[in-house]
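Re: iron/sulfur cluster structure - here you go.
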Amino acid sequence: MSEKAVILRIERISLNDGKGMRTVVFFKGCHLHCAWCSTPESQKLPREVYYKKERCRSCGACILRCPEQALAFTADGKVVRDQKKCRNCFHCVDVCNFRAQQIYGREMTVEEVMKEIRKDEIFYFFSDGGVTLSGGDVFCQTDFAEALLDECIDSGIDTCAELDLYTDPENVKRIIPKLDMVYADIKCMSPTMHKKWTGGSNGKILANLKLADEICKKDAIHVRVPVVEGVNDKADNILATAEFCAGLKNCAELEFLPYHRLGIHAYRQLQRPYPLEDRKPMNRFDVYERMGFLCDREWPFDIRISGMEVYSAESGKINVTEEELKA
Ligand code: SF4
Ligand code: SF4
């Protein structure tokens, strides 16, 4: 029987998730829960219900149908879900004629996902693109990820994955050699801060990154750091991250990503509190102010801020203006 997985969504013709045009397969489920997560709808593995307030006509059908009495009207006629009572039976989705109650996640076989991927094959050919596995965490459904990568490889499709590496080393050994490019997150070098803000240890992640470096294709590793004020934006953490990357043989790029609040809408729809209400979003300039000092040293990899190159392994520091960084 074909392997099945819970897939959050499949995005086509993405330009920011690897070389060329990519089809991005978002896996549902994550072992961590980072406070700045931009896809909270990917965190839980099972399919789950969410509410689109703007579509709701306050008919009350979902409230009457819910067998767990998990739903109620708010004072302004909208619907609130008691997450502790909800069993994700989806009866409220079935009875809502206005599609205000919907489901995150879909069970799919490898063949079904491949069918979606093949629709974009022509774009891969002309742009050097391919498939990127993302999440959530791919390692919550490793068997499926491996089977899907095997199919892509058999079809000559370029493979990439965005990975947290918070998993058993055995899973790393199964997946990494099948990837043409690996995006690996380093969130924070302090074990205490990492545990506090993500719920998991960074010891396992850093050890797996070293392992991935040993078994990956040449220069396949691109490290990404989401920069969040008060979490990992201090000079000592930034320097420690770069020095760790310099110890890898196949790290081609270190990229800093300014913290943004794009996930906040999904938190509202899931009716979960947003963990970083007090944190300001950053732009490239804010990040450059914190990590720009790295560009005055020598590194064996390129350095970018959200796609913009600020240091080249070949030619060193690249001069960028405040206007360019803020654009
Ligand atoms: S069934 Fe749909 S439209 Fe009616 S109250 Fe529930 S969410 Fe709103
Ligand atoms: S998914 Fe089921 S338990 Fe949860 S709110 Fe809807 S009807 Fe109630």
